[in-house]
Amino acid sequence: MIKTATFEALLDDTAPDGQGGYTFTLEGKTYHLQEKDEVRSIAEAHGYIIIY
Q1: 35 in helix, strand or coil?
Q2: Which of 9, 11, 16, 24 has the greatest number of C-beta atoms within 10 Å?
Q3: How far apart are CA 19 and CA 1, in angstroms?
Q4: What's the rounded Cα separation, in Å, for the pair 23 and 18?
Q5: pTM of the predicted model as reported, rounded to 2 decimal places
Q6: Quick one: CA dihedral 12, 41, 29, 1, positive or negative?
Q7: Cβ pair 4, 47 in contact under 8 A
Q8: pLDDT by residue (tens digit) across 1-52?
Q9: pLDDT in the model for residue 1
């Protein structure tokens, strides 16, 4: 199965965590990020191809 996502859609799924970082949930797993750009590597680790 090929999984794709736009970078913008991934960024839309981030939310401020109230401590200067962000939370991001993908496929039921929640991540705590320092920078929004970290969503790219997380999505790639889940097998997604990122479309810019």
Answers
A1: coil
A2: 24
A3: 36
A4: 10
A5: 0.87
A6: positive
A7: no
A8: 899 999 999 999 999 999 999 999 999 999 999 999 999 999 999 999 999 8
A9: 86
